[in-house]
């Protein structure tokens, strides 16, 4: 039952990721890769970079906590890879949402 939940989350995130890729390429064509589009991408990239930096800090904190636990905790590799894939795809979604928000503000 737990695998069904994880699989459904992966599918939803994958569909969102593919939608974001298509939408971003469409926006790039609409703006003709002009200076405004490059500025939007730059600012959205900074937000996405902050997301990935926060993710790295969270992983480092969790690793330190796991080192100090008295009993080792075993997590299946497929679950870790699935969560990692979700985290990477969510980064693209965050970039798209940042572009949309910044586009409305500029």
Automatic annotation (TrEMBL):
Spans traversing the lipid bilayer: 6-22, 50-68, 80-99
Lineage: superkingdom: Bacteria
Keywords carried by this UniProt record: Membrane, Transmembrane, Transmembrane helix
Protein name: Integral membrane protein
Organism: Lactiplantibacillus pentosus DSM 20314
Lineage of the organism: Bacteria, Bacillati, Bacillota, Bacilli, Lactobacillales
């Amino acid at each position: 039952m737990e695998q069904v939940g994880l699989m459904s989350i992966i599918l939803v995130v994958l569909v969102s990721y593919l939608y974001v890729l298509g939408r971003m390429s469409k926006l790039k064509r609409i703006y003709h890769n002009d200076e405004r589009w490059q500025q939007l991408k730059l600012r959205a990239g900074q937000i996405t970079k902050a997301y990935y930096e926060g993710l790295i800090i969270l992983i480092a904190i969790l690793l330190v906590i796991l080192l100090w636990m008295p009993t080792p905790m075993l997590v299946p590799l497929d679950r870790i890879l699935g969560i990692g894939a979700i985290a990477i795809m969510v980064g693209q979604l965050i970039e798209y949402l940042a572009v949309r928000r910044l586009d409305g503000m500029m």
